[in-house]
Write a structure and sequence with these properties.
Number of helices: 3
Number of strands: 0
Distance between the termini: 43 Å
Strand content: under 5%
Radius of gyration: 15 Å
Mean pLDDT: 95
Largest sheet: none
Low-confidence stretches: none
Structural class: mainly alpha
Helix content: over 70%
Shape: elongated
Length: 103
């Protein structure tokens, strides 16, 4: 049960980051993005390319953590903490940028 909660938390944090990125890039373009990889993918494939790349990474991380959860529980906890934190940080940065630009 703990593993499922951790994995769902990762997913929710990453989805919040992806959604706030999509809104921000639709309104203000890619110029505000601080992730150089996302900017490069956006230049070649647009918003859908960035979201597809993010989705692939999230699926890979969740799959890896789920597959190793019983054998390496610390990896699940620490990896889950990092993946959730990165997603939340991206979400907060995106929302802060949107709020600053709106005001």
């Amino acid at each position: 049960m703990v593993a499922r909660v951790i994995l769902v938390t990762i997913l929710l944090a990453q989805l919040a980051d992806a959604a706030s990125f999509a809104v921000g890039s639709a309104i203000h373009g890619i110029g505000l993005e601080s992730n150089g990889f996302a900017v490069a993918v956006f230049a070649s494939a647009g918003t859908n390319g960035v979201l597809a790349a993010k989705g692939a990474v999230v699926v890979a991380v969740i799959g890896l953590l789920a597959a190793t959860a019983t054998r390496f529980p610390r990896l699940l906890v620490w990896g889950g903490a990092v993946a959730t934190s990165v997603g939340l940080l991206g979400f907060v940065a995106n929302v802060a940028s949107l709020l600053i630009l709106a005001g």
